[in-house]
Amino acid sequence: MANVFQELATWFHQVFIKQFDTWVLLGFVAQFFFSMRFVVQWIASEKAKRSVVPVAFWFFSLGGGGLLLVYAIQRQDPVFIAGQALGMFIYIRNLWLIANERKAAMTKVD
């Protein structure tokens, strides 16, 4: 059993300490931004007492997804690159739709 704990400790050291560099730090920052979109969505939904997707959700998605895409490209991970690149299109499209909706609403007011 002690051997298992030693191997696990060695693995954790290799993964989280030994290979830590600026790119890994960027990856953690990107993941933080990407995760914050769920916190923002949860808080907005709790306040409204219904499911809500605030605009900030899409901005956090865009920021975190963009940084994760840069990280994935640097790591040369084709699965991660493809997933993040598709996500970027979706986030930009949603922000575009929101902007168009707001522009149309402002035009009706005038």
Automatic annotation (TrEMBL):
A GO term, aspect molecular function: lipid-A-disaccharide synthase activity
SMART domains hit by this protein: LAB_N (SM01259)
Stretches that traverse the bilayer: 20-40, 52-73, 79-99
GO biological process, one term: lipid A biosynthetic process
Keyword match Translocase: no
Keywords of the record: Membrane, Transmembrane, Transmembrane helix
GO cellular component terms attached to this protein's record: membrane
Domain Lipid A biosynthesis N-terminal intervals: 26-97
Any Pfam family the entry gives: LAB_N
InterPro entries, A to Z: Lipid_A_biosynth_N, UCP028440_lipidA_biosyn
Protein's name according to its UniProt entry: Lipid A biosynthesis N-terminal domain-containing protein
Species assigned in the record: Mesorhizobium metallidurans STM 2683
